[in-house]
Structures are given as C-alpha cells and as structure tokens.
Amino acid sequence: MKIGFIGLGIMGKPMSKNLIKAGYELVVLDMNQSAVAEVVAAGATAAATAKAVAEQSDIIITMLPNSPQVKTVVLGENGIIEGAKPGAVVVDMSSIAPLVSREVAGKLAAKGVEMLDAPVSGGEPKAIDGTLSVMVGGKKEIFEKCYDVMKAMAGSVVLTGEIGAGNVTKLANQIIVAINIAAMSEALVLASKAGVEPELVYQAIRGGLAGSTVLDAKAPLVLDRKFDPGFRINLHIKDLANVLETSHEVGVPLPLTAAVMEMMQALKVDGMGDNDHGSLVRYYEKLAQVEVKR
Do residue 113 and residue 211 come from a single domain? Predict the structure, then answer.
C-alpha cells in the first residue's frame, strides 16, 4: 500500500517519518522544500503537485492548517481529486470545520474516492514518538482499511461516527484543552501573587482531582518559562474559531470557550501568536502584575 502525505509542518513531518519507520512507501508534498528534503532523506519520494501525489497513492493523508487549505489541496486545480483513483481514500488529519469535511467528502464520493476526517491531538511531542490520539469520522469499513496506517502514527485511533464526527470530536478536545490551560493559569498566578511557591502548588494538586494531562504537560513549561511551540496560540485560535462557528450553527452557547478565545486574541495582539498556548498564563500575569516561575 503506497501512502501519499501532503503537509510536512510541525506535526506532519514527524508523522510522515513514523510511517516510513513502519515500512510504508511514501510520496510527499509541501511548500517547504527543506521539510520535503528531510523526509525524502528518511526514505520518501517527492511529488510536484497534489494531483501527482494522488496518482501514485492508495491512501492520501493531508495534514494542513485549516479548511481553506484542505479545500484547495483536495478540490482545487492539480488537486487530489484530479489524480485519485476510484477506490482510493483521502485521510484528512487536519483540524478543520466539520461541515467542510462533509462538503469535501461529498465531492470526492462523486468521483468514487472515499474519505475519513481524522484530526489528531497530542502536539509535536506525541507526533514525534508516535502516540497521538486520532479521532475519526467516516464509514466503518474504510476506517478498518486505514486503521493500521493511522495506528503507525498514534497510540489511540477511535472511530467516533460518520464523516465530520472526527472534527466535532477534535473541537470538543480543543475546548477542554483551552479551558484547562486557562484554569491552570488562573491558579498558578493566584498562588504566585499570594506568596506561595507555584512549583509546590503544582506538585500538591497534580495527584488529586485537579490533576490532568494538560496540567502535567503545560505547568512544568510555564514554570521554566518555556513558550516555544508546542501548539501555537494562532492554531488554537483557528480551532476555537471553528468551535464557535459550529456551535452557532447547531445552537450551543459556549461562554467559557468564547472567553478563552478573547484571551488568546489579546495575546496575538501582543505579538505572542506564534508562542505555545501555554502562554495563556501571560495574559493573567499581565493583569496581576506577577510572574509564575520556579
């Protein structure tokens, strides 16, 4: 089974390398030629267009920034839809709006091409070590056909429903992550301003009900003042924009999500959009005139 992989960014590059390590033959594409060269050096071959990737592939994986890029790469000129063979599968592992997933899948289906929406969670560290969580929407038989390929990049691969369900699940994930980071930030800023060592507060609460994967991933980085991404504020803003758009379409008020979105927008205005989303602590630090550190 030959795999196409389009999008070799922070996440896509290590994910593609894990597929090569698992023994899959890859053909890759990205605008960043240094990323392409790095993956080619690991054993892939390069293609010039998305159409050319699709022509050579049984499964075409896309890992792109947002809905417009997915639509362009899949449906645009020299796109996947022009090169994919009937029976091929597009596995979009980008985090995009669920309605766009359904739109793209419908147009591919008219050409005899199947699709899964399969966004991931875990950030760059889990992309590197191959332990991402993958949330998948699509037909059960297509999920089973592609399961081993996705599992080569992940610790968990779960079918959550029909096409679009993967991205709905990812939106739910991003709500919880954003609000968890905000809550952690509030707590550590309070501790610091009240004169209590935030490192000790973290160690005291991490084993109790307040403990979480988010807390263990982000608190040590905040305490060390490490704000390199990770997962960029700008990307989380993109995800929360998709959350709020979807919530408005289906009639679900999300007041906490909306509040965290505005905090992230404030950080972006302050020039921190390319920093890790753990930088939410700096929004609170600015308000309280205190710094959280060891």
Answer: no
13 has catalytic annotation: no
Domain presence at residue 208:
yes
The tens digit of pLDDT for each residue in 92-123 reads 999 999 999 999 999 999 999 999 999 999 88
What sign does the CA torsion over 107, 114, 46, 236 have? positive
C-alpha–C-alpha distance, residues 106 and 126, integer Å: 31
Enter the pTM of the model: 0.90
Q: How many domains, the chain?
A: 2
The three-state DSSP-derived secondary structure of the chain is CEEEEECCCCCHHHHHHHHHHCCCEEEEECCCHHHHHHHHHCCCEECCCHHHHHHCCCEEEECCCCHHHHHHHHHCCCCHHHHCCCCCEEEECCCCCHHHHHHHHHHHHCCCCEEEECCEECHHHHHHHCCEEEEEECCHHHHHHHHHHHHCCEEEEEEEECCCHHHHHHHHHHHHHHHHHHHHHHHHHHHHHCCCCHHHHHHHHCCCCCCCHHHHHHHHHHHCCCCCCCCEHHHHHHHHHHHHHHHHHHCCCCHHHHHHHHHHHHHHHCCCCCCEHHHHHHHHHHHHCCCCCC
Range of the domain at 243: 169-288
- Kindly state whether residues 131 and 192 are assigned to the same domain: no
Q: Which CATH number does the domain housing residue 189 bear?
A: 1.10.1040.10
- Active-site option among 13, 51, 126, 170: 170
